[in-house]
Every structure is written in C-alpha cells, then in structure tokens.
C-alpha cells in the first residue's frame, strides 16, 4: 500500500535515507558513526520544521514494513522556509552538514528529493510504484512541473527518467557529484 508517511515511520525512513547519504559520499558518513547520527535524523524526520520530515514523505508499506519511500516538496525558495538541519545536529553534538543545496531545485517545480527502495524489496516494482505516486503528489501540489536530479554516475536511472518523460534542463553539483536536473511537465 502506498500511503502518506506517519511520525512512527521516521526511523524506517531514516534507515532508508542512509542509502542516499552514503551514495552522496557526504563526509559526515565517515566522520560519525551511524548509531550517533541516526537519532538526530529520526528526530528531525518527526518535526515539520525540517525539510526531510515525515510530512514530506510517502511510503510503500508491505506486510507492515516500510519497503520504500520518497521525500518530495515544492522546490526553489519555498523549500528554503525549512530550518537547516544544523540546528538539530548541534543539539546532538554532531558535525554540521546540509542535505539540501539552494541550487538543487527551482521555484515553480515540485521537487522529488529522494526515492529509495529497501534492499530486501528491490526488483518487485516498488520503485516504479513510488515514482508513480510522486506524479500524484506533484499534481496535488498544483505545480505544473515535477523535477529531480540524477547523478551522472547513474545512467540507468537517467534512462528510466527519460523514458518517463523527464528532460534535462540543467546541471548542478551536489556534494562534489555532477547531476543532471530533469523536469517533466504534468
């Protein structure tokens, strides 16, 4: 079942979000142990003032387990209204890092920030279901465009997005990785 995330999903979402943080090769993933970083990110996911919170997430539930999820929200300056994650990291005595760059999304687009399928559920169409759910969420936002960034080192994902109607509109560097910014008209 695809559904809106709830506060109690914060830990499962955070465990899956670790895949994104690791793939981005963020220094914090080497500087901190996961058992120290995870509680701060779980707390942030439970609070609406942070970008990566449960209200910006949709999950795919299989037999009571979160099999995958995505974070998405209105892009550009609207997304700047969230408090930087550094606030909570400082409270936990952790190195400061940010998971969002101001050039990552553009005003007027609904931005698919991240999408992850749990390793145990890969190859079962869950990623596709979640991606289809992003289109629904984006249309509900009233914005005419859905956008995402795809790492140059992930040509399979870029090919998938192109097949779904996404077109490259620019490039951005995030955490020292080159990404194509892609948009699709809704």
From TrEMBL:
Tagged with keyword Acyltransferase: yes
Query: Boundaries of each N-acetyltransferase domain copy?
Result: 1-186
Q: Which Gene Ontology molecular function entries are recorded, alphabetically?
A: acyltransferase activity, transferring groups other than amino-acyl groups
User: What Pfam families does the database record attribute to this sequence?
Assistant: Acetyltransf_1 (PF00583)
Q: Which domain of life is it from?
A: Bacteria
Q: Which CDD domains match?
A: NAT_SF (cd04301)
Concerning Gene3D superfamilies, the annotation shows: 3.40.630.30
Q: Which UniProt keywords apply?
A: Acyltransferase, Transferase
Q: Which PANTHER family match?
A: ACETYLTRANSFERASE (PTHR43420), N-ACETYLTRANSFERASE YODP (PTHR43420:SF52)
Q: Spell out the protein name for this chain.
A: Acetyltransferase (GNAT) family protein
Name the species this protein comes from.
Alkalibacterium putridalgicola
């Amino acid at each position: 079942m695809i559904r809106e995330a709830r506060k109690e999903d914060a830990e499962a979402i955070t465990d899956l979000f670790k895949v994104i943080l690791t793939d981005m090769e963020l220094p914090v993933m080497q500087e901190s142990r996961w058992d120290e970083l995870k509680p701060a990110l779980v707390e942030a996911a439970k609070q609406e003032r942070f970008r990566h919170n449960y209200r910006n997430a949709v999950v795919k539930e299989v037999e009571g387990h979160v099999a995958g999820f995505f974070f998405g929200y209105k892009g550009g300056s609207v997304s700047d209204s969230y408090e930087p994650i550094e606030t909570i990291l400082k409270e936990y005595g952790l190195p400061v890092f940010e998971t969002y760059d101001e050039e990552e999304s553009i005003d007027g687009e609904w931005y698919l920030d991240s999408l992850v399928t749990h390793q145990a559920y890969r190859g079962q169409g869950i990623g596709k279901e979640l991606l289809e759910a992003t289109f629904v969420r984006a249309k509900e936002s009233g914005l005419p465009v859905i956008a995402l960034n795809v790492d140059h080192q992930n040509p399979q994902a870029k090919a998938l997005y192109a097949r779904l109607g996404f077109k490259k509109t620019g490039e951005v560097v995030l955490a020292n990785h080159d990404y194509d910014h892609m948009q699709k008209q809704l």
